[in-house]
Amino acid sequence: MTRLSFWIHAVLAAPLVLVGFSPLLLAADDPGDANAQKVFFQQKVAPILVGRCLECHGSEHKGELDLRSKATALKGGESGSVIEPGDVDSSLLYDYVVNEEMPPKKPLSDDEMAALKQWIESGAYFPSEPLNQFATSTDTRAGYDWWSLRPLAEVSPPTPDGIPAAWNENPIDRFVFAKLVEKQLQPSAPAQRRQLLRRITYDLIGLPPTPEEVDDFVNDDSPDAYERVVDRLLASPHYGEQWGRHWLDVIRFGESRGFERNEIINNAWPFRDYVIRSFNEDKPFDQMVLEHLAGDVIGEGDPDVEIATTFLVSGPYDDVGNQDAAQAAQIRANTIDEIIRATSEAFLGLTVGCSRCHNHKFDPVTQDDYYSLYATFAGVHHGVRVIATAEQKQQHAAALQPLQETQKQLEKQRGELENEINKRGEEKAADFESAWTREAVRRTGAEETFPPVPAKFIRLTVEGVDNNPQARTGYRIEEFEAWTAGPQSQNVAAAKNGGKATGRSRTAKDFDAYNAMQTIDGRFGARWIATGPELTIEFAEPQTIERVLFSSDRAGQAGSQTIATFVCEYRLSVSLDGETWTEVASTADRKPVSAAHRRKRLMDAVITAAEKKQLADLGRQLAEVRQQQSKIAPLPAWWAGTFSAANGPFHVFLGGSPQRPGRTVVPASLSTLSKVAREYQLSNKSPEGERRLSLAKWLIADDNPLPARVLANRLWHYHFGTGIVATPSDFGFMGVPPTHPQLLDWLARQLQENGWQLKPLHKQIVMSQAYRQSSTYREDFAKVDADSRYLWRFPPRRLTAEEIRDAMLMAGGKLDRRAGGPGFRLYRYLQDNVATYVPLDDFGPETYRRSVYHQNARASRIDLMTDFDSPDCAFATPRRSSTTSPLQALTLMNHKFTLDMAAALADRIGSELPDSPSPAAQVGRAFELCFCRAPTDDETNACSALVKQHGLPALCRVLLNSNEFIYLN
Prior knowledge:
It is built from 33 helices and 18 strands.
């Protein structure tokens, strides 16, 4: 069915009154009657103008022509007048249409041309209200009457003829069976019990059933056996881990910042735990929406609620920054755009972000709609926020206050003493400054010359860096040279000449360890980062030297933001034995690099011994106070966003550019749903939190049809592999129309009637015969419905990456079921301005937890899980891919994790069976643990032969690599 035919079908099937329908249509051919003209326009002309003309000649005014109202239409465009009422021959509009120049993509039909001709001849009637290009859906775009934007229909489950008794009990089955009858399909037989138990267990908790659970269910003849299994699984704490993972996919939750630096975020995991906890508690989803968008407002002082605002900032975040104001504004606009897209797609199933630069090309979403959301989220910033109870904050403040008062008094005393010394130094400044005859040290290099002196060692002792006169570490040196005296001078410090450099330096795991040898390796750009005050160079043999040169950025290409510090106060000393040192140069006669350095020099020159001791005592006391403060546990601070007042005015950005502000907007609901949902509009001075809360309340209002539809469809999607709408985050024109629109509305209403709790709807779905039928393939039905969208069988699916990994852990008896807390890592994290994520080769027990607790970083590869389509959380993933590639087979066969789990499974079987078990017994237990069934005789014989020849681990490896292990049917 094409989109147009679907829309026509939906319009005719829906219990709505068509706009403009009236008995007066009988008089539509009488152009002299005013009412007839109105009806004729509504019925014949408006669909042409709205559907074929206003896309270009509406709000966009192409050719400076606006056909939305009589005044603008008669005004004409850049070609002059286009409509002459009563004179069709003089009307340029009709001329363009007849000559098929307009519309450019598809000419009008003869009937449409005739309608336009009659309309112009009868006076070119226009209604008093301007036409809205979004008023009705066309074959090129959706309007306000698009199926997903209509109110939820009041539908009753059908009772199709010939429905089996079992399919007549659950309303869901009645909807499904009616569609099967319509498509001339039939349902499949019920699934076998082992098959059904494996399906429902993976579906609800993401793990396989145990052999004991399989036996209990297979041998339970009670009529409610399956229902009790469903209830048990819905009550399992693993339910929240499975379904929380689905939701984290939808809302693009990741634990690194993304973009160039992609730094890890170590304090976002409480949100993941919040999501899992909320699903386990069956928290009403409308409450979760409120908490996601405004948890800080409705739950201030309640960490379990406040943490939910991590949703707003759980997407990628560009933290590189830019000194250019225009670029900084663009980065900020991009940041808010990401929040708008995540919110609208997750809760509304609308691609609102497409309206950033212009009105949506396919859906009735305007630029004003987009920037109303922009105004709503303008105060949201990525970052860390203290989230604690009022009692925690009071206790923390009470513990800190006396220490802070003491610190304040000590700092005041020290400041007064330093000011007194500084004053004395300024009085004698001229005397000292007269000795500072040489230029200050520069980042690009410091050169010292001195009388030739014999040396086997030379040492740089740092006494200050550019941004801190007191600091003696943290500086960077890219190259250090020591030149011999005489006409054929050479750099005897260079590594190629035998020089050896030593000095404490920073390390960064597998990155270059910033070894001091970098300072004499002859390469500029690679910088040694010091953690000690000294750099010592040993020559290959004693030399007579007279010149030293060292730099932090000799080429002068790096800004101060890139290279944090350079040496600007130092002493150079030489030695022949490494024990006795002689100073040969220093910065004592150089000018200071800054006012702070000047101040320190003057202080050092005039300070008395008593003052030094007094300052040292004050420094020691301050250090003790700070140490006591450090022992007080800080308040918990999580990556949950920060919020600031943002009072506008807010503008539409023309073309999406912050540098081109257009008309003003205010925080408001989307006009997209104004026909069916209550609207709200706030002033730009409204509190920032009120804006987000108003949006959340509008989303969950009973008359807003989209959130309930979208959520019900998401549940269906994860149960059956494909939603009733196959594009779960796009219910617009470019999305896929629903296969069962009435069922979708019925499910959405059930969700609302159940108080937005998900577990009752889960149960309703999985208790249906549609869900419980087998996955047996039928070629004749597959020709009609290859993907079983109409559910003539249960659609088989491959396990997700997390399910595969967790199932391996469970089969091997290694699954660590500990819930919550900081995540584990399947990569080694390396960070030096930018982050690198290196997949692990070996996996310890600390990685044996459920995969949902993995610390997912953006753009990180995790071998087995990545190969099996675990998504990159840089983007929302409402629908996971399920690819097939050679790399999957290679990884599953050879990956160290698979080998470890195969060995663990073999060890488990060995420990569970009696001494000296037969290969057949081992094979049987392996099949139970991997496939939830016993092997056939042929399988037993073949696998026993394999065990005898290659050992039990080889068989376990084969089973973990089998299709039956990673597929559900």
